[in-house]
């Protein structure tokens, strides 16, 4: 099996591409996970030609459709970054990525809760970086996570599980999908999906069972979307079952002589003389 290929914000691997000429090297990504995957580093801001070091940029306006603006010169970079991001994501799609790790809080790469500056000093943490938005729009099934979330053991395990599952799904598609092969893939992953989202598992069961009633391409597209969406749901933590408490051992049976002795009143102590 070829190494898993993941995209990543270049600063997380130690490349000095941030606005102030520094990096945000993440030891887990660079050293631990890096031994098992092939990284594809990307820095949209450098690729846009902003240089290192450079003027800070930020999101402004409507959190749903923010503008990317240089903080001091007030240059509007929205159109240029959007155009570059869309073209770059098309190139990344050709590389057949298995996942992507983004830099949190970045106005270009942040996946969620990026600061959006409004009028005056008011800021809202509701934005998405322009490159991250283009990436998720073009590759909706691709497992994507921010490096900050990967410090949580449960979220890290979930992300890695989704990366492997997505690689298997792509492998199944590359081998040629038929209704029988779709049923076999679902049977192999049914317990995994059930552990994450029982309702989604039932929907996929019905989708596979009725696959002959719709065009295969539509069924496969719906299954892939439902499969990856189900795995985004956090599986409930397993709880250890307590061992049943053993009943107390029955009291030893007393002999008739012992029972009679126990039933006799205790002898009175002689009263001491005054």
Please describe what this structure looks like.
The chain contains 9 helices and 8 strands. The protein has helices at residues 27-32, 44-47, 78-94, 130-138, 153-174, 179-196, 198-209, 216-232, 256-263, and strands at 4-9, 37-42, 57-60, 67-70, 99-102, 114-117, 123-127, 144-146. Strand 3 and strand 4 (67-70) form a beta hairpin. The model has no long low-confidence stretch (mean pLDDT 89).
Estimate the strand proportion. Answer: 5-15%
Gross geometry: elongated
Strand order across the biggest sheet? 2-1-5-8
**Averaged pLDDT:** 89
Helix content: 40-55%
- The low-pLDDT segments are none
Span between N and C termini? 101 Å
Biggest sheet architecture? 4 strands, parallel
Q: Tally of extended strands?
A: 8
Radius of gyration (CA) equals 31 Å
Could you state the order of secondary-structure elements as H and E? EHEHEEHEEEHEHHHHH
Per DSSP, the total helix count is 9
Structural class: alpha/beta
SSE map:
Layout: E1 4-9, H1 27-32, E2 37-42, H2 44-47, E3 57-60, E4 67-70, H3 78-94, E5 99-102, E6 114-117, E7 123-127, H4 130-138, E8 144-146, H5 153-174, H6 179-196, H7 198-209, H8 216-232, H9 256-263
Parallel strand pairs: 1-2, 1-5, 3-6, 5-8
Antiparallel strand pairs: 3-4, 6-7
Helix pairs in contact: 3-4, 5-8, 6-7, 6-8, 7-8
Produce a short descriptive summary.
The chain is an alpha/beta fold and 274 residues long. The protein has nine helices and eight strands. It has helices spanning 27-32, 44-47, 78-94, 130-138, 153-174, 179-196, 198-209, 216-232, 256-263, and strands spanning 4-9, 37-42, 57-60, 67-70, 99-102, 114-117, 123-127, 144-146.
